[in-house]
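Review form for a predicted model. The reviewer records the input and the model, then writes brief findings.
Reviewer: anonymous (R2)
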Amino acid sequence: MAKKKSEPSPTPAPAPGLQMQAHRHGLLAACRLVSAAIPVGSAKPVLRNIKAIANGDRCTLMATDLEIAVRLDVRGIRVSQPGHALLPSARLLAILSETLDEDLHIVTGDHITVRGSTNEFEMPADDPATFPDVPSFDEKSYHEITANMLREMIRRTVFATANDNVRFGATTGVLWELSEKQATLVATDGRRLAVMSAPAKAVNGHATKAADVPVVPAKAMTLLARLLTNPDETVRVAFRKNEVFIQVGETVIYSRLVEGRFPDYKQVIPKDGMQSANLVAGPLNTAIRQASIMAEDDGCVDLRFAKQRLSVKAQGAESGKSNVELPVDYAGKESNVAFNPSYVTEMLRVLEPDASMTLDMNGDRPALFKTPNYQYVVVPLVESKS
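Model under review:
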C-alpha cells in the first residue's frame, strides 16, 4: 500500500509478543469488523490473520486483502506487555464467540494462548513482521460529513453498482464528487443509475478533480456503512492518487480506487420532454411486488397511468397475469412504461415508506424517479406506448 514518501510508516514496531487482558464482547465486535477485510481463500496465508499491536490502554487491530484495509483502535485493554502479534482470525472469532468468560487473557510469543477462567486455547504463532502495513489517517486535507447522512447516501446508491461478472468501466464502485460544501455519490450498472447529494465540508481545500473523479469499490462502501452506527459522528474522507482514507471514530478504512472510466452520468439523467406522476414509495413498492408475483424470471411489470390512477400489470406465458391498482396524483394523458421489477423495488426499499417522489417518463426513454436530494434513472425494458 502506498505511503507518503516524506513520512515514516504510521505503524509502530514494538517487539514481537504481547500480553493483555480484554473484555470478550468488545474484542469480538472489533474482530468481526476488521475481519471483513480478510480475503476468502487467499493465496497468502499471512492475510488470514488479524494483526494486533498492544500498547498503553489500547490494542490496534488490522486486516487487509491488499486492496482494502481496516485499522481499529480498541480501548479499555489492560496491557501488561506491549508488543505486536498475528492472531488467526477464524479461530480467534470462534473462541470469542463460543467461550462464556467475560474477560480473556491473550499472551503471544512462540505460540498464542487465549485463556479464560475455565478454558485455555493454544495456537501456532506467525511472524508479525510479514504482515503488510496498514496506514493510519494522518491527512491534513479532507472532507467532513455526518455519519447519518453518509450512511443514507451509501444505502441509496451502492445497490446500483455492477457486479464483477457484468461490468463496464468503473461501474463496480461508487463515484465521489466532492466540492467545497457538497458531496455527491453516484452508482450505475448500465441499466440504472442512482445519485444522491448532501452537505459536506471541505477542510484545507480538499476536493475531487473534475477530470479524474475517484471511484471507491462497492466492498469498501458496504464496509464503511457498517461503521456508521453513531448518527452524529463526523466522518473524514481524504483522497490521494489511486487511494482513499476514511476515518470514523477509532476506525480507519483504506482502499485502492477502482480503475477504469466511469460513465458521464449527467448525460443520462432526463431533463425535459417528460410526463410526471407524483407517487409515494411504500404503496408503489407494495403494488409492484404484488403484481410481479405473476412476472416470470425475465419478465417485467407494466405501469399504466390514467387520470388519478395507476395500474400495475404483469403477465407470463405459464404463470398467468396480475393487475394491481392504486390512486396516484397524475393528470397527464394515458401513458405506460415497463420495468424490471427488481430494479424499481430495490430503489423503493431504501426510501422511507411515506417518501413522496416524482416519476418522469416518456416512452422508451430512461425514466427518472426523484426526491429533493435523490435521483434514480431506470432504462425501460420494452418500448412503451403513450
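Findings: The first strand starts at residue 19 and ends at 23.
Further findings: Residues 186 and 377 are 11 Å apart (CA to CA).
Recommendation: see findings above.
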